[in-house]
Amino acid sequence: LLPRALLAGLHRFQTTRSIQDVSNTVKDVCETEADRMETELSIVRYIAWAIPSIGFLGTVRGIGTALGQAYQAVSGDIVGVTVSLGVAFNSTFVALVVSIFLMFLLHQLQLLQDRLVLDTQNYCDERLIRHLQVPDQAMT
């Protein structure tokens, strides 16, 4: 990102001799990269959203299995029902824990990406844009 932003800014300055155009170009390059990184995370966000849903499907399946064994509970054997209910609620619990962990990692990655973009913009501003000078037309 940094080399691309610097080169785009320098090429813009060479073409237009406008410091404002350089600033806009660097900003546009950084925003485009931020959008690209955001788009690449969409599948991870979808998976993070889907994991709890999969856990709830496990819960429904476990409750269904437990209800299917209800006739055994009536006769005094509740082991099958309790095992199925345990699986049902454990699937939800595991899915939610995995989802929380994945969301934490996703937010950390997003933070790193945002910092990269901001650091690149700041670097270009401090090391390039502030040092550019437009030559006086009267002297040439």
Q: What structural class results from the helix and strand content?
A: mainly alpha
Which of globular, elongated, flat, extended, rod-shaped describes the shape?
rod-shaped
Order of helices and strands: HHHHH
Low-confidence stretches: none
If you average the pLDDT, what whole number results?
Answer: 90
The proportion of strand residues reads under 5%
- Span of the ends, CA to CA: 35 Å
Number of strands: 0
Please provide a written account of the structure.
By secondary structure, the protein is mainly α. It has one domain. 84% of the residues lie in helices and 0% in strands. The protein is built from five helices and no strands. The longest helix has 49 residues, at 79-127.
Task: Write the topology of this structure.
Blueprint: H1 2-16, H2 19-40, H3 42-68, H4 70-74, H5 79-127
Helix pairs in contact: 1-2, 1-5, 2-5, 3-5
Question: What would you say about this model in short?
Answer:
With 140 residues, the protein is an all-alpha fold. Helix content is 84%, strand content 0%. The chain is rod-shaped, with a radius of gyration of 28 Å.
